[in-house]
Amino acid sequence: MNYRHSFHAGNFADVVKHLALVSALTHLKKKDKPFVVIDTHGGRGLYDLSSREAKRTGEHESGIGRLAKIENGEGALGEYLRLARIVPESYPGSPLIAAKMLRPIDRLVAIEKHKEEFAALRDALHPFARARVVEGDGYDTLIALLPPPERRGLILIDPPYEDDKEFERAAKVLIAAHRRFATGVFMLWFPIKSRPAADAFCGEIANAGIDKLLRIDIETKPQPKDEKERLSAAGLLIVNPPFGLDEDMRAAAQIIAPALDAKIELGWLANN
Fold this sequence. Notes:
The protein is an alpha/beta fold. The protein is built from 9 helices and 10 strands. The protein has helices spanning about 10-30, 50-55, 75-85, 95-100, 115-125, 140-145, 165-180, 195-205, 245-260, and strands at about 35-40, 45-50, 90, 105-110, 130-135, 155, 185-190, 210-220, 235-240, 260-270. An 8-stranded mixed sheet has the order 5-4-1-6-7-9-8-10, sandwiched between helices. A two-stranded antiparallel ribbon has the order 2-3. The model has no long low-confidence stretch (mean pLDDT about 95).
């Protein structure tokens, strides 16, 4: 996969990931107590869908582009669509979506290690007083930030998976982070190139003593062989999903799956 998310912004995987993020934050805001959002791989924050990179792959056209006919969704889907369309010809990354949803009592820490992406992320989040941008390795920085003083929080781990070793590192960091902050909500995104490998990855995390673990998979139709190979399936693991998130995602899936020409599956790997 290409590290720069500009090539993939707004694709089918982003739709599911960001919809789940919106749902989780919506439920976290139902309590008056503050919370923190930590995004370990923040990216640029805002992506130009008319850029050379976006046009080169056109992935957004089979993602957020296919939801154009859904004018007014309900609940989390409606809020996600509003945020996704807030800047014409652009698509917001996870940190910007979170920043726009936070209350004055909440805060955001967005981490990015690549200098160019970090500079763009800093500019995108500059208007938000409760957002802090950190230049550094997301994995190492995350552990140092836990547990947060708020004792409530959502941690998004969304690495680029540039090599196979990143699966191992992502799993280890999630398990270590959960041990430091067992009540936190964790979201871990992962590509699915091999179903057995993805199942083994999820199984390793499920066997780490986590009481509540929800898995969401989305699979689209593979591209024709004469086209450049693209990712056609991805997953999202959610530790301690807020009550009601699974219902939000099941309801939204009934609407977006046909539009994306995709199959979306939800299943509990642990629900104690």
